[in-house]
């Protein structure tokens, strides 16, 4: 790891170790090292020819419910075969050592939960949950649903069942968004990990923190739409940098404990 990055990690660790309230926004990049492609990456092979709007929208679902259902069963299978990576695990460990910790994710996978994160705010829903597209009744997936050519139908209103993820043009869950905005408005430091920062309102959250002069720290191997606003940009994969950052925070916390 180069000298400059080492120094940046130490500076970031100092800020986070002193923070009472840490807020984190994650995107698809935090799951990349678990082999879960980003929304757009996942459209490889037979799915590459479809436009995301056709696979993740009410219009696409109405036009071809079977195709949308098969796409989400494909992604659910990919998520459930994946394992949390060291980046997910480091975030769960950081939560356990921080007085107030708010983990906000744009990801629909459950890798944060499987890594041990306790209260995760899913702004874009969760792929392992389902509900009726008509009446909203929750639905429990049955094994035979996974290979079915068409979505199951609701036992109450007979409309089609869909994954509980936010589709293009749909509103984000109000409670999760309000909690995320509140965290951005009260945190001592805001971490942005593995997101291109182009989808709103999620991408607005670090700006809320920045406006209050809370430091914004980004972890991403590439420059994102949020990098110009970040006080520190740790350029590298989160699966590698987050454990390193956690170690530096642990050392500082231990040092603080000895002094006090
Ligand atoms: P994107 O695919 O737009 O961006 C992924 C980001 O992760 C990029 O900035 C990559 O540079 C970065 N990245 C790749 N590998 C990484 C690694 N190992 N460690 C850290 N970062 C890495 O995914 P999101 O920003 O999450 O919305 O996309 C946001 C939303 O756009 C998604 O939630 C989805 C999509 O439309 C909905 O489905 C509603």
Task: Give an overview of the whole structure.
With 260 residues, the chain is α/β, with parallel strands linked by helices. It folds into 2 domains: 1-36 and 85-124 and 171-260, 3-Layer(aba) Sandwich (Rossmann fold); 38-81 and 126-165, SIR2/SIRT2 'Small Domain'. The chain is built from 10 helices and 9 strands. The chain has helices at 3-17, 29-32, 52-55, 58-63, 65-81, 86-96, 111-115, 174-186, 205-211, 238-259, and strands at 21-26, 100-105, 120-122, 125-132, 138-139, 161-165, 189-193, 216-219, 232-234. The chain has a 6-stranded parallel β-sheet with strand order 3-2-1-7-8-9, with helices on both faces. It has a 3-stranded antiparallel β-sheet with strand order 5-4-6. A hairpin with a 5-residue loop joins strand 4 (125-132) and strand 5. Helix 6 packs parallel to helix 10 (238-259). The radius of gyration is 19 Å and the shape is elongated. It starts with a helix and ends with a helix. The structure holds 2'-O-acetyl adenosine-5-diphosphoribose. 2'-O-acetyl adenosine-5-diphosphoribose binds at residues 27-29, 32-33, 38-40, 56, 106, 124, 166, 194-196, 199, 219-222, 224, 237-239. 2'-O-acetyl adenosine-5-diphosphoribose (OAD) binds next to helix 2 and helix 10.
